Amino acid sequence: MTCKEFQEVAHELLHPESAAVESVRLGLAHTLVCEECAAYLAAQRMLDEQLGELAAVSAGAEAPPNVERALLAAFRARLSALQSQHRTPRAAAMTWRWAAPLTLAAGAAALLLAGVLHHRNTSGPDTSAHATPAQTQGAPLNALLNAPSAADAAQSTSADAAWTNGFVALPDSATGDSLDGGAILRIEMPASALSSLGLPTTGVEGDQLVPADVVVGQDGTLRAIRLATD
Amino acid sequence: MVRKDSIPTDDALIRRLRAGDEEALAQIYRQHQAEIYRFALHMSGSRPIAEEVTQESFLALLREPQRFDPARGPVLAYLFGIARNQVRRALERDRRLQPLGGEQTMDDLPAASAFEAESEGTDRTERIERVRRAVLSLPTPYREVLVLCDLQQKSYAQAAEHLDCPVGTVRSRLNRARALVMAKLSGTAVSRDVGERTSGRERTGILPLRAGERT
């Protein structure tokens, strides 16, 4: 065995169970006639010990409990969404049917917002905008979903009213996304479209326009929607 | 004592998961999360990245359980495949935020000193930190095999399964990885084929490797 061949199998000599018997025999025989390779084997042994110390430091490390909680919450949300789709296939279809028009509406609203902000920057306040933007100031989407206003909370006397308390996440919205730089915009949509998104529109004709607030992320995508409450 | 036939197989758990059984997901997670977490922790040197990688790996299984094919290997190997990609993406994403090479910040890692008696002094802690830095400075393919074989005590065959490569590749990469770590620790050059050169000398007690110097 040459020194080069020895160096290729040296670490295996420390774990003979994983090496070929012949390699171990030849390698050990080589260390008897080559001091440098004998020293190299000793260095490998020392490295093994040091790696063992490093492994021991994190031997009991596990993912913190919040990872499992988040995973199971995602599972339940996914299951719930799937069951909802199975129960109301027409509503699900309507949701997707309205996804594109909603995105277009949001894009238009975002352009309008950009124009308004630009105009304000150059010529002072402008109150003529039809959209009513409100900066989301970095709040995560789930904070908006879980934090109804005081006025909303006072109305939460029925299941339907509970929906009006806050925003409903739109399909494919990640609730942990930051909304830094995003905006809340006032738009009008047909009652049937809002209904397909899970918002209560009882007593309103399907094609009647209903005011709603949408959360638009910084990237222009729609994140959530709610019925306008004022 | 648990009877062997009472432990559900990966295939059975995945079938239950597809059917909407939350407990199946919990079982898969509890069986494998520690391995995935430690792999990501050793690969990244960052606890937040390790958490993120663990969560994303299991979320991927949750989103598309049908992509797991039991004929190609166990669930753990499938999860390792996802975790490897997630680690690479996370490191790539954070590259601009962290110094390269052996200068990565170790503040996120559990301090070695937290696991030691004070009487052992700082020598051991410093030694562990040096080894940790040397491991983190390895190119990804070498770091993967060293983490699996030397830090997570996987056999060559298991590492090959997790990395989806031949056993011979694991063996040769591990040899190079160890040579690189030894060279890092001793502050000396290593053979050109691993593409690393260092200078200076540290007090490690590990002799420099001069591959091919004598034959």
Description:
The complex is a heterodimer of chains A (230) and B (215). Chain A has 230 residues and is α+β, with helices and mostly antiparallel strands. Chain A contains 9 helices and 5 strands, in the order αααααβαααββαββ. In chain A, strand 4 (209-216) and strand 5 (222-227) form a beta hairpin. Chain A starts with a helix and ends with a strand. By secondary structure, chain B is mostly helical. Chain B folds into 2 domains: 7-97, Rna Polymerase Sigma Factor, Chain: A (Orthogonal Bundle); 109-210, Orthogonal Bundle (Arc Repressor Mutant, subunit A). Chain B has 8 helices and no strands. Chain B has helices at residues 10-18, 22-44, 47-63, 75-94, 121-136, 140-151, 156-163, 167-186. Chains A and B meet through helix 1, helix 3 and helix 4 of A and helix 2, helix 3, helix 5, helix 6 and helix 8 of B.
Offer a few descriptive terms.
heterodimer; A: 230 residues; alpha+beta; B: 215 residues; mainly alpha; Rna Polymerase Sigma Factor, Chain: A; Arc Repressor Mutant, subunit A; 2 domains; 8 helices; 58% helix
String of helices and strands of chain A: HHHHHEHHHEEHEE
Uncertain ranges of chain A:
123-142, 144-165
Tell me the number of helical segments of chain B per DSSP (H or I, 4 or more residues long): 8
User: What is the strand tally of chain A?
Assistant: 5
CATH class of the largest domain in chain B: Mainly Alpha
Give a short overview.
The complex is a heterodimer of chains A (230) and B (215). By secondary structure, chain A is of the alpha+beta class.
List the helices and strands and how they pair.
The complex is a heterodimer of chains A (230) and B (215).
Chain A: H1 3-13, H2 21-33, H3 35-57, H4 65-87, H5 89-123, E1 134-135, H6 141-146, H7 150-155, H8 159-163, E2 168-169, E3 183-190, H9 191-196, E4 209-216, E5 222-227
Antiparallel strand pairs in A: 1-3, 2-5, 3-4, 4-5
Chain B: H1 10-18, H2 22-44, H3 47-63, H4 75-94, H5 121-136, H6 140-151, H7 156-163, H8 167-186
